[in-house]
Design a protein that fits this description.
5 helices, elongated
C-alpha cells in the first residue's frame, strides 16, 4: 500500500536510506522518486494521465513538464553552493 501522507513518505524505507542529507526537501524528493519508480515498475499505467478524465488528459503533459522544469530550475544551482569534499576551495 503506497504512503498517503507526507509523514508516511518522509519516514518510508526510501527516506531512511538518505536520512543524513542536509536538506529535508532533497530527502523527500528522493523518496518521491523511489516511490514513482516502484509504482511505474509495478504498473506502467499508474500515471496521472491514466487516472485523469479523458477530456482533461491533454493537460497532463504540460503540467508534468512545467513542474519538472521548475524543479530543475531550483535544483540545478544547488550543487554550486556545496563544493565536493574532494575539491579544494577556490582561492
Amino acid at each position: 500500500m503506497p504512503p498517503t501522507s507526507p509523514a508516511e513518505i518522509r519516514y518510508c524505507e526510501h527516506a531512511a536510506r538518505v536520512i543524513r542529507i542536509e536538506a529535508p526537501a532533497i530527502t523527500e524528493l528522493l523518496a518521491a522518486m523511489a516511490h514513482l519508480d516502484k509504482a511505474l515498475a509495478a504498473d506502467p499505467d499508474h500515471t496521472t494521465s491514466h487516472y485523469t478524465p479523458q477530456n482533461r488528459q491533454h493537460l497532463v503533459p504540460d503540467w508534468i513538464h512545467g513542474n519538472a522544469d521548475q524543479i530543475r530550475a531550483r535544483l540545478d544551482p544547488l550543487p554550486s553552493r556545496y563544493p565536493r569534499p574532494d575539491t579544494p576551495p577556490a582561492s
